[in-house]
UniProtKB/TrEMBL annotation, chain A:
Annotated protein name in UniProt: Cbb3-type cytochrome c oxidase subunit
Underlying gene: ccoP
Alphabetical keyword list: Cell inner membrane, Cell membrane, Electron transport, Heme, Hydrogen ion transport, Ion transport, Iron, Membrane, Metal-binding, Oxidoreductase, Repeat, Respiratory chain, Transmembrane, Transmembrane helix, Transport
Record-stated family: Belongs to the CcoP / FixP family.
Keyword Oxidoreductase listed: yes
Cofactor annotation remark: Binds 2 heme C groups per subunit.
Function recorded in the entry: C-type cytochrome. Part of the cbb3-type cytochrome c oxidase complex.
Organism: Sphingomonas echinoides
Region of interest (Disordered), ranges: 290-312
UniProtKB/TrEMBL annotation, chain B:
Protein name: Cytochrome c oxidase accessory protein CcoG
PROSITE patterns from the UniProt entry: 4FE4S_FER_1 (PS00198), 4FE4S_FER_2 (PS51379)
Keywords, in A-Z order: 4Fe-4S, Electron transport, Iron, Iron-sulfur, Membrane, Metal-binding, Transmembrane, Transmembrane helix, Transport
Organism: Sphingomonas echinoides
Membrane-spanning ranges: 33-51, 85-106, 159-177, 189-209, 363-381
Every 4Fe-4S ferredoxin-type domain range: 274-304
Top-rank taxon: Bacteria
Iron found in the keyword field: yes
Lineage: Bacteria, Pseudomonadati, Pseudomonadota, Alphaproteobacteria, Sphingomonadales
PANTHER family: FERREDOXIN-TYPE PROTEIN NAPH
């Protein structure tokens, strides 16, 4: 082959011998420093293999001399982030919940923190957008079963709703008027008609007129004479457009017949107080949050529960 | 260990050892032009970050600042936000087309005069000459055995190179933060790590590229010479050795081969005296090698136009000096186009410079370059300094309120690009009976518009609620308009939707 070596006249460089449509490749030597760069890369790789995890073993890679690991990096970053957030978390812990909105930075931090915690603990029932589902309240709207100011939401979160074993939990029970025979089926239908009249879904009928009397005798003690509900016992407002289980005739009939018994866990037993605080502030910010009363009323849970609806 | 060039055993060289270049000092018009351009370029580079520009209390007072942390780019009276990055893209495109324009007008002038690699290499070479002496002294020192004097000179040279490298990298970081503050922090050791790392990396690259690698960067690493070989045409200016004037070379007369053949062994000077008509057959090139000695990339321009030639013109200066000494006309080597070279060879007049400059290719590049520039200036003069972006809350899309009306949530981003706080009014239109309110104000403050204060040079993120009667289309267009309430005014508009539940049958 050596005798076939041809030289390109203009450059004085020999051809490699490859040709594509008359275009030939010249055998131009690489600069020497290029070779040294290659050697330097090999040396770098050798050092790297010693210092860092590199060789795949049975269960994990070899541990380098430096002991570096991506898990370690993550732990360090998490610790650093924890330290970074510490002052804000401390401030949130020290500030009473109703005073947090006065500090916009603290409020924003609490809303963001609450949003994160909501995604972990609350979306299973209330949904990712807090829009709820049948039996699980929509937290975006302006209707609250137990009250929608910051302290009340915090209280509900801490102790839950009808959470067994928590003395301060939100407690009430609607009687199963149909199942337990308190009302006859016709009376149930009459009271359903009246409730649908209250929420302007039906006009006045003979049935709803009869139902008004049934309502006054059986329901008004919790839901109020006008059906506006009572937050002390979590009795829903029956006159508005919002229904936890549904406002159609069949669903209301089922509710009156069998009653409802929704439960929410007491998060005070599972989460730290700051997280609960942040969750309350987040939920309050979703659009239906109510102003904290200027003269704080006693927490609703401390209000004596009317005997008629007391828990079993 | 086998030497790399022995890899095949037959002595074939796969890796070429570097032939070190010792460029000789030269003086002349092109050298002086290079000095001037180097001074201006270095002055611009080092001074720019320290220029101040008053933008009021809410913005930095640095004339040129790339504020990466806050995503702002300041250039004198112009402030660029991230969404306006197309201005920067436009500048880069202009720089690219500008290079094409320069190439088509004056050849590889960028390589020869303005490229940072050229400018810094020139500076490093100058330092080398100041310490080691000119070309011959440098070659001598290179060959000399190591001794105290050589070691001292080498240490001095590399130290100064490193200092220049550090100053180069040091200047770079001031484009990205307030220069006086960062300068103080840098000296005190309290500057961010990235500042030290950047200076370290740039010191290393400046030292390696400008001091150690030099012409290797141009010949092996830089893509621009390769692009140039595709861009040059017969009307491009290149440094040309006028072979028709220079050949045959006469190194003294003794070595002029053709002459030696003519006079058949007689001493050539005698031959010349006896036959003066022979003088016309001797070229002007006396093969003195001055053009090769001064070349910063170590090429011989007499071999013709080549990739290693950065067209710096130093060989022109060198050759002109020699031509003056031997009483020959100057510009044996000069800037010429291929076309002019052919014309000159045929004894015809060259193409007039203006006619060469105003050729379609150059005009086309200039048109594109100037067009982009004018379009950007126009856009810059007309840009709105207030902006709005509306993002509808998608989960939940709608919320039924206790009074039966439907509420939608929106995050409205109001962009205040002025460097002063502004009050703006956000108004909605398109959905009958719709009202809006902010979370803080509450629904009892609901109206057709809300007032919002926006901090200077900031984006205000305003969560808004809009409610409308429950009866209506499931999806209706809803327009948001933001209007500045100060006397300068300005407004912007964005559209979104208002959604309602499907009506229950």
């Amino acid at each position: 082959m050596a005798d076939e070596k041809r030289i390109d006249e203009p450059t004085g460089t020999s051809f490699v011998g490859h040709e594509w449509d008359g275009i030939e490749e010249l055998d131009t030597p690489m600069p020497r420093w290029w070779l040294y760069t290659f050697y330097a890369c090999i040396a770098f790789a050798a050092v790297m293999v010693v210092l860092y995890p590199a060789i795949p073993m049975l269960h994990s890679a070899s541990t380098g001399v430096l002991g570096w690991s991506s898990h370690g990096d993550l732990a360090k970053e998490m610790a650093a982030d924890h330290a970074r957030r510490a002052p804000v978390m401390h401030a949130l812990e020290q500030t009473p919940i109703e005073q947090i909105p006065a500090d916009p930075k603290l409020l924003r931090a609490a809303q963001e923190g609450g949003h994160s915690a909501f995604k972990v603990y609350c979306t299973q029932c209330h949904g990712a957008g807090a829009a709820g589902a049948k039996g699980y309240p929509n937290l975006n709207d302006d209707d609250w079963l137990w009250g929608g100011d910051l302290k009340t939401i915090q209280q509900t979160l801490l102790h839950g709703v009808r959470q067994p074993g928590d003395d301060e939990t939100r407690m009430s029970q609607m009687p199963a008027f149909g199942r337990d025979g308190i009302l006859k089926p016709a009376e149930v239908q009459d009271v359903v008609s009246y409730v649908r009249f209250l929420s302007k879904q039906e006009g006045v009928t003979a049935s709803s007129r009869r139902g008004a009397a049934v309502f006054t005798a059986n329901c008004a003690v919790c839901h109020g004479d006008a059906g506006k509900g009572n937050r002390a016992v979590g009795a829903p407002n029956l006159t508005d457009g919002i229904w936890l289980y549904g406002g159609d005739r069949d669903t209301i009939t089922e509710t009156v017949t069998n009653a409802r018994y929704g439960i929410m866990p007491a998060w005070g037993a599972r989460l730290d107080p700051v997280t609960v605080k942040m969750l309350a502030i987040y939920v309050h910010s979703l659009g239906g949050g109510e102003k904290t009363p200027v003269d704080p009323v006693p927490a609703p849970a401390e209000t004596p529960v009317p005997a008629a609806v007391a828990a079993r | 260990m086998a030497h790399p060039q022995d890899l095949t055993g037959d002595g074939q060289q796969f890796f070429e050892a570097r032939r070190k270049v010792f460029p000789k000092a030269v003086d002349g018009p092109f050298r002086r032009l290079k000095w001037a351009i180097m001074l201006v370029a270095l002055a611009i580079y080092y001074v720019t970050p320290w220029l101040r520009w008053n933008r009021g209390p809410y913005a930095p007072d640095q004339a040129v600042l790339v504020d990466l942390a806050h995503r702002r780019f300041y250039m004198f009276s112009i402030e660029i936000w991230p969404h306006e990055f197309y201005y920067v893209a436009g500048l880069l495109i202009m720089a690219g087309i500008g290079l094409f324009l320069v190439t088509s007008a004056v050849g590889r002038a960028w390589c020869g005069y303005a490229c940072p690699q050229t400018v810094w290499t020139d500076l490093f070479v100058h330092v080398e000459r100041a310490i080691d002496g000119d070309r011959n002294a440098q070659i001598k020192l290179q060959r000399a055995p190591w001794g105290p004097s050589k070691i001292a000179r080498r240490i001095a040279k590399h130290s100064i190179w490193l200092v220049i490298g550090a100053l180069t990298g040091g200047a770079w970081i001031f484009y990205f933060a307030d220069a006086p503050t960062l300068g103080r922090a840098f000296v005190q050791g309290s500057a961010p790590f990235v500042a030290y790392a950047t200076v370290g990396v740039l010191t290393a690259t400046t030292y390696i590229f400008g001091g150690l690698m030099r012409e290797q960067v141009c010949i092996y690493m830089c893509p621009w010479p390769r692009i140039q070989s595709a861009m040059l045409d017969e009307k491009s200016l290149t440094v040309t050795y006028k072979a028709w004037r220079g050949e045959p070379r006469s190194h003294g007369l003794k070595r002029a081969e053709p002459l030696a053949q003519v006079v058949l062994g007689t001493p050539s000077l005698v031959a010349l005296i006896e036959q003066p008509e022979l003088a016309s057959r001797i070229g002007d090139c006396i093969d003195c090698n001055a053009c090769v000695a001064v070349c910063p990339t170590g090429i011989d321009i007499r071999e013709g136009s080549q990739i290693g030639c950065i067209t710096c013109g130093l060989c022109i200066d060198a050759c002109d000096g020699i031509m003056a000494k031997i009483g020959r006309p100057s510009r044996l080597i000069g800037y010429t186009t291929d076309l002019d070279a052919r014309l000159a060879q045929a004894g015809e007049a060259p193409v007039p410079a203006l006619k060469r400059l105003f050729r379609p290719r150059t005009l086309l590049y200039f048109g594109a370059w100037a067009g982009i520039g004018l379009a950007m200036l126009f856009a810059l003069g007309n840009r709105e300094r207030i902006g709005i972006g509306v993002l509808q809350t998608r989960n939940p899309q709608w919320v039924r309120l206790s009074d039966g009306s439907i509420r939608n949530g929106y995050t409205v981003k109001v962009r205040n690009m002025e460097e002063r706080p502004r009050s703006v009014e956000i108004a909605i239109s398109g959905v009958p009976g719709a009202v809006l309110w902010t979370e803080e104000a509450g629904r009892n403050q609901a109206a057709r518009s809300v007032r919002v204060d926006v901090a200077p040079d900031q984006v205000a993120q305003v969560p808004l609620f809009v409610s409308a009667p429950g009866a209506g289309p499931t999806r209706a267009d809803l327009a948001f308009t933001v209007r500045a309430l100060d006397k300068e005014g300005g407004s912007a508009r964005d559209t979104s939707f208002f959604e309602r539940p499907e009506p229950t049958p």
